[in-house]
Amino acid sequence: MAFDIDMIKAVYEKMPSRIEAARKSVGKPLTLAEKILYSHLWDGNATEAYERGKSYVNFAPDRVAMQDATAQMALLQFMQAGKAKVSVPSTVHCDHLILAKQGAEEDLRNSLTASGEVFNFLESVSNKYGIGFWKPGAGIIHQVVLENYAFPGGMMIGTDSHTVNAGGLGMVAIGVGGADAVDVMAGMPWELKFPKLIGVKLTGKMNGWTAPKDVILKVAGILTVKGGTGCILEYFGEGAKSLSATGKGTICNMGAEIGATTSTFGYDDSMERYLRSTDRADVAEMANQVREHLTGDDEVYANPEQYFDQVIEIDLSTLEPHVNGPFTPDRATPVSKMREEAEKNGWPTKVEWGLIGSCTNSSYEDLSRASSIAKQAVEKGLKTKADFGINPGSEQVRYTAERDGLLKIFEDLDATIFTNACGPCIGQWERSGDNTRVNTIVHSFNRNFSKRADGNPNTHAFVTSPEMVAAIAISGDLGFNPITDTLTNEKGEQVKLDPPVGEELPSKGFAVEDNGYQAPAEDGSNIEVVVRPDSKRLQLLEPFKPWDGKNITGAKLLIKAFGKCTTDHISMAGPWLRFRGHLDNISDNCLIGAVNAFNKETNKVKNQLTGEYGPVPATQRQYKAEGIPTIVVGDHNYGEGSSREHAAMEPRHLGVKAVLVKSFARIHETNLKKQGMLALTFANEADYDKVQEDDTINFLDLDQFSEGKPLNIEFVHADGSKDVIVANHTYNEAQIGWFRAGSALNLIKEQNK
Ligand code: F3S
Known about the structure:
Layout (H helix, E strand, L loop, with lengths): L1 H25 L5 H7 L17 E4 L3 E5 H11 L11 E4 L10 H26 L2 E3 L6 H8 L6 E4 L13 E4 L2 H8 L4 E4 L2 E8 L8 H12 L7 E6 L1 H4 L3 H9 L8 E4 L3 H9 L3 H9 L8 H5 L1 H4 L2 E6 L6 E3 L7 E3 L3 H8 L5 E6 L7 H16 L7 E4 L4 H9 L2 H7 L3 E2 L21 E5 L15 E5 L2 H10 L11 E2 L5 E2 L21 E2 L36 E6 L6 H4 L12 H4 L18 E2 L6 E2 L1 H10 L4 E5 L11 H9 L1 E6 L4 H9 L3 E5 L13 E4 L11 E6 L5 E7 L4 H9 L2 H9 L1
Parallel strand pairs: 2-3, 2-5, 3-4, 5-6, 8-9, 8-11, 9-10, 14-15, 14-17, 15-16, 17-18, 22-25, 25-26, 26-27
Antiparallel strand pairs: 1-7, 4-21, 12-13, 19-20, 22-28, 23-24, 27-30, 28-29, 29-30
The protein binds FE3-S4 cluster.
FE3-S4 cluster binds next to helix 5.
C-alpha cells in the first residue's frame, strides 16, 4: 500500500513546522487535537488562531472510508465529479448489508444473493476510481481501518458515525455524510466548525473485571447523549497509557454515543505495539521520529483546566464495570447496582442473548478476554443460560482467534459465530421467536435504542464489555455481579467466575489467509461500471440542470412544514435503507414524515392542480410532470439530525426549487446548497404565518442573486392579495456558483474538464 506510506510520510514531514506555526498563532501550548487539526489545514501553515465552537475551518483529511450502505450515494455522486481517480486514499467496506441468522457461512451466502447487485457495483466503482475494496465478510469498517489504515496524528473522515474508532490509534477521525466524502475524494477542502475540547484524565490502572468499555460507559453517564456535541474528547494521563490500542478504540468508538465530533489518545507504546503487530513496523518507525508531536504538550496535561473547555477525571483503579441501558447508552449503572435498578424499574432480568461483536468490541483482545470467561463455564460445570452470538471484527481477527482456539471455546457453549460484519448491531439479526415479547439481551455494541438489534420495541438491550456479556449470558441474569456473586453448577456446587484474562495481541502474531481486500486497478479508465437500467436498488445519477438565470415564477407551495422537521422526516430510514443507491425510488419517501402546517397531518398536502389532498412525493411528481416549480417552507432548525445528503437530493430530484425556513441546521443548509437548491431563511420569522396553502410564488430579484443581498419573494394568495417576503441567504460567491451550475458537483466537473 505504497499510496498510504507515501501519504503518511508526507503528513509527518509537514507536522513539525505546521505545529510550530500553530503554536505561534494560538500563543500557548497545544493539545493533541489542536496539533492534528492545525497540521491538516487546507491552506497550509496556520496564520490565525481559530475560535473553538465558532470558526468554520477548511481541512485536508488524509483519507476517506465508506461503508456499503452510505458508499452507494457517495460513489454515485463521485462518478459525477469527472475525476479519473480519488484524490486521497479511500476504501469501501461491505459490512452493513450482511445478515445474522444461521451462522457465518450461510448468512454470507444469502447476503451475497440479496445484495449482490450493490456489492458488485461498489466493487466495480472502487476498481475504476482507485478505491480499496473490502469484500463482504472481510470485516467491520472500523476494525479493518484500525488494523490497516489508522495512524497516529492522521486525520480521516468516514461515511459512518463510528469512524471515530480510529482515535484509538491517535487519529482525528470524524463521521460525515456522503457529500463530504465526495468533496474530499474529489480533491476539495472539507469544512468543519473548529471543535471545543474536553480533556479526560485517566489515572490509576484497571484491574479485575473492569475493561476499557467501562471508561466510556462511565463518561456517557457523566456527559449524556448530547454532552459531547461539537467537541473532541482527548484522553490523557498514566491510565490512558495503560490501555491497549484496541481498548482505546472502544473508548473513542462510543464517543459517537455522546455526540462528540471525535475522541483521541496520544501516541504511546501500546499504539506502537499494535502497529508492529498489524504488520506496520514502518509506520511505527516513522511515528517514533515525530513522537513529541503526536501527543499534547506537557504543560497542557499538567494544567488541563487551562487548556481544555472541560475536564473530567476518572480513576481506573476504582472504576467499576458498568452495564448501560436499556434503550439509551448513557443510562449508566455500575454492576453492583444493577439488580436494585432492574427491580426498581421493572426491567426483565432473565437474559436471553449475549452478543459479542460490533465495531466497538470485536478485537482479538476482546474475544480473548471474553473467551476466558466462557472457558470457565465449561471447566466449572456451569450450564449457560442465555444464547451466545459472536461477530468477529475482521477476517484477520476471526482467523487468528480460530487458530488460537478462542472460537472453539464459544462453540463449545453452542454459540453462533456470525459473519465478520455488523450483523445484529444494524438490525440485520433475524432473531427467531415472537418479535413483540418483553425480553432482555446484553451486548458489547454501542447503541441500544429501541428496535435497533432485532426490531422488537420490547427488547431491553444493555451495553457492557465483552467479558461482562459473557458472564451475564452464562448466568442468564441481568443482576448478576461476577465480582461478588456465585453460580450453581450442574453438580449443585456454588462456583465463582474468576476475573477475565486475555492477550492484548496474539502471542503468535496475527494470521490470515484471505483478508478480503481487493486492490483497485492501476488504470481504471477502461472499467465500465454497470448499473442495470431496471435495477430497483441502484440508479446512475443524472446531473441536475443548471439555473437558467431567470426569476422563478408561478411556483406552488409543496408543503409548509410545522415544527420539528429533521432529516428523518425529510428522508426516512428503516425500510427505505435499501433504496439508498436509487435516487428516484428513495424519493418516494420525500418529506413523508413532515407535518403539514395546514392540517397537522403527515404526508397529506393539497395538490393545487386538482384541489385534492395526497402524499407529498406523488403531489410533487405531478407538479414536476407539469413543469411547475415548487418551494418548501419550514420552521426552526429545519434539517437537523444526520448529515444524509438524500434529504437534499430528493427534493432537488423531484423539482423543488427552494426551501424557505425560519432557520436551518447547518449541515442540511450546506447540503441543499451543494445540490443546487435555494436555501433561504425568513428575514422576519413572523412571515412564516403569511404563507398560505394556495399561494402562487414569484421570485422578484433572483436574477440579481449575489452574496449578502437578500431576495424578495412575492406570495400571491388565493384571494388575489399579495405579500412580499424578504428572504435572507448565506451563499458566498463560490456557492452561488454551485447554484448557477446546478450543483457543486457540476461545477467540479466543469473545473476538471
Ligand atoms: Fe456496524 Fe454497528 Fe459499528 S452497524 S459500523 S458495528 S455501530
